[in-house]
Design a protein that fits this description.
Elements: E1 4-11, E2 27-28, E3 31-32, H1 33-42, E4 49-54, H2 59-69, E5 74-79, H3 84-92, E6 101-106, H4 114-127, E7 129-135, E8 141-143, E9 149-152, E10 159-168, H5 169-182, H6 189-194, E11 201-204, H7 215-227
Parallel strand pairs: 1-4, 1-6, 4-5, 7-11
Antiparallel strand pairs: 2-3, 6-10, 7-10, 8-9
């Protein structure tokens, strides 16, 4: 039976919406964003172990949150790095038992559904690499000379990529090791895997799986969670 691990990247302080509280600790309907995110993965039978990556100065706060949750999952908390890629790399070292499949998820995406997470796990098991995304609805222009666009891209082939992103553990480790040797900084985990020539399966997700980065996002999360 395959073993599934999850790296939840809380990372650094992030945008604080004018407060001193990092966004992963902001309350949505009475609970911190990070608690919603961790609770979702902890509730899944398909997930065996969770590693939370946090800025070093926030680790005591994360520890208190995890203790209060009382999750039955084995949860490790590790310190993040300078870049998100470094933080995920640290998270991959934090597993107590080596997983077969590993998911990487943004702490600030508390609205991901169980259905989507399980679909990514299944796709990663079949294809070695999978990401969740939604089709782009707007017309996308490619910038050319400053102030002018060069090309209109075919939106039928464009996806906005979200998390979780899922991979076989050995593949993601190889991708990170290769990137580290080349001093390559990718925009996400799938970009590291693409450099190895490995195709990445797209799993269609949900537009509600937003990453909370603005006050408007926070209000949308509050409304969505109030209904669910």
């Amino acid at each position: 039976m395959r073993r599934v691990g999850v790296v939840i990247a809380a990372g650094g302080a992030g945008k604080r919406f004018g407060s001193r509280t990092p966004k992963q600790f902001l309350n949505v309907n009475g609970l911190p964003i990070l608690e919603y995110t961790v609770s979702l993965f902890a509730s899944l039978r398909s997930v065996d172990e969770i590693v939370v990556v946090s800025a070093r100065n926030h680790i005591p706060r994360v520890e208190r949150l995890i203790r209060r949750m009382g999750s039955r999952k084995i949860i490790s908390i590790v310190s993040g790095g300078t870049e998100r890629q470094d933080s995920v790399w640290n998270g991959l070292q934090g597993f107590i038992s080596r997983p077969d499949i590993v998911l990487v998820h943004d702490a600030a995406r508390p609205l991901v559904s169980r259905k989507v997470v399980n679909a990514v796990i299944a796709a990663a098991a079949r294809n070695h690499a999978a990401v969740v995304g939604v089709r782009v609805k707007d017309t996308i222009k490619l910038e050319g000379k400053k102030g002018f666009y060069e090309q209109t891209l075919d939106r039928n082939r464009l996806w906005a990529v979200q998390t979780p992103q899922g991979f076989t553990f050995d593949l993601l480790m190889k991708a990170h090791n290769t990137a580290r040797r080349a001093k390559y900084l990718g925009t996400d985990e799938s970009s590291l895997v693409e450099r190895l020539g490995i195709p990445v399966r797209i799993v269609e997700g949900d537009a509600s799986n937003i990453k909370i980065t603005t006050r408007q996002d926070l209000r949308l999360a509050e409304m969505w969670l109030a209904k669910h």
